[in-house]
Design goal:
Layout lengths: L3 H4 L6 H13 L1 H10 L8 H15 L6 H10 L3 H4 L2 H9 L7 H28 L6 H17 L9 H17 L13 H7 L7 E6 L5 H14 L5 E5 L4 H13 L3 H6 L7 H13 L2 E4 L6 H15 L4 E5 L13 H19 L3 E6 L3 H4 L15 H5 L2 E6 L15 E9 L5 E8 L4 E4 L5
Parallel strand pairs: 1-5, 1-6, 2-3, 2-4, 4-5
Antiparallel strand pairs: 6-7, 7-8, 8-9
Helix pairs in contact: 2-3, 2-4, 2-7, 2-8, 3-8, 8-9, 12-13, 13-15, 16-17
Length: 448
């Protein structure tokens, strides 16, 4: 590696740093956005770093930020004269005529900061590479950790005192108290029994629906997704690693129109059913439901796509992943258990970071089949106990009729959804009806 690379100045853009500070003084909205996106350490110029640090502190304590208040605070901290007095702040404001490009300038500042951190990590890795006294596997692990730290530095611990947290917590309690007596504090799943136990799909929660194959877990998840998109009109992202988008669209049509899926596939439905099919299609076309049917997907890729979607559309009501064991780990793992553990942790992090409920489907182990009693248990979660640990809610789907066929050929369409873990509520079984021919679930009281 040429020596001159190490002699170059670290990447920075002082004009962008100055423009960010100017935007903070010009526009309240830009101020909030920028202080959420950047940290003082992202600034290369030490004077600009000091100013942004003061601005960030003022925002955290809900104080107004303008030329006068910032000047007074800098004076109180003994920084104003060091910076060059009022003339320094005036020059900062004069450098940017509008705050319209604040986000763009902030991204430049952030990108340059990441470049500098990568250089620091790279230098550390180069020094480690010359250290032949260490075990090679240990060196590789340390090198990986250095690079990983660069990507996760924005997720450093953010301790909050009860003084900080209590007002928003109390506001939520007050909202729930004043809300009509529906008992729903999250996003309705569209199923009365499920909502009764969960109070709706909670933002930031990881929900696992687990079952053996052919129990209908994809159908249930898509029914919930359809309810959120159609009834609540909230955007839903479905990441389907098993089925293609057209297959899922066909299932959604059958469920919405209450038409036999097989008849839709082979076109054998009655001519008179066309109206129901067209009406269902019209409803679904207007629903904000989006399907990504990439067959290979890691949690890092999923988070990036979901984050871009939310940034573009401004809102995200639900993420569905079908299914967890088909996802890829972001790096090579020594066992399937560790791979699944990383994926479940990643999905939980996505739910929290994007403040959206995540429903991830999961396979249950074959241990269910070897027992006389086929009812699933939490211990049947396949490949990793980490799924149970990371999940806020685990629901085990079971249809007795799948194993116990009626000798007289009568159809039993009952299904049981066992809420086996519920971090913020009770556990119990929900009785549902599975209309297999429509790939549709309904509440037991309303199933037909």
């Amino acid at each position: 590696m040429p020596d001159e690379i190490f002699d170059r100045l670290p990447p920075s853009n002082l004009d962008a740093e100055r423009a960010v500070l100017g935007a903070c003084l010009l526009d309240r909205e830009a101020l909030v956005d920028v202080t959420e996106f950047l940290s003082p350490e992202d600034f290369y110029d030490l004077n600009y770093r000091d100013v942004f640090n003061v601005i960030a502190d003022m925002v955290k304590t809900s104080r107004p930020v303008d030329m006068l208040t910032l000047s007074a605070e800098l004076q109180n901290r003994g920084l104003l004269e060091k910076l060059g007095g009022q003339a320094f702040l005036a020059a900062v404001i004069d450098s940017v005529p509008t705050a319209a490009n604040a986000a763009y300038h902030a991204r430049i500042v952030r990108d340059k900061a990441i470049h500098r951190r990568l250089i620091s990590a790279g230098n550390a890795i180069v020094r480690m590479g010359y250290d032949e006294s260490k075990d090679l596997s240990e060196l590789l692990e340390d090198a990986e950790r250095f690079v990983f730290e660069v990507s996760r530095q924005r997720n450093e611990a953010n301790f909050k005192s009860l003084r900080d947290v209590m007002p928003s917590t109390f506001n939520k309690i007050e909202e729930a108290f004043n809300r009509e007596d529906t008992g729903i504090t999250g996003i309705t799943s569209g199923f009365i029994g499920i909502d009764r136990l969960t109070s709706g799909l909670q933002r930031g929660a990881l929900n696992i629906i687990a079952a053996r194959p052919s129990m209908g877990k994809t159908a249930l998840a898509m029914n919930i997704a359809r309810n959120v998109a159609v009834k609540a009109q909230l955007p839903v992202l479905v990441f389907s690693l098993e089925m293609g988008a057209e297959q899922l669209a066909l299932r959604l049509l059958g469920a919405e129109a209450r038409m036999n899926l097989q008849e839709l596939v082979n076109g054998s439905f009655a001519r008179g059913d066309w109206k129901d099919l067209q009406d269902a299609a019209s409803i679904l076309i207007e629903a904000p439901l989006y399907i990504d049917d990439s067959s290979i997907l890691s949690t890092i890729e999923l988070k990036a796509r979901a984050r871009r979607f939310k940034a573009k559309h401004g809102e995200l009501g639900l993420i569905v992943v079908d299914y967890l064991q088909l996802m890829s780990a972001s790096r090579a793992m020594d066992s399937k258990q560790n791979e699944v553990a990383e994926i479940s942790r990643g999905l939980k992090a996505i739910a929290r970071e994007l403040e959206v409920p995540v429903i991830a489907l999961s396979q249950l182990s074959r241990a269910v089949e070897s027992r006389n009693e086929k009812t699933p248990q939490l211990s049947d979660l396949r490949d990793s106990g980490a799924i149970e640990q990371d999940a806020d809610l685990v629901a085990l789907l079971y249809r007795e009729s799948y194993y116990a066929k009626d000798p007289e050929g009568r159809s039993d369409n009952s299904a049981s959804l066992d809420i086996a873990k519920n971090r913020n509520g009770p556990t119990d079984k929900v009785r549902l009806v599975f209309l297999r021919e429509y790939t549709r679930f309904e509440d037991m009281a309303y199933g037909r």
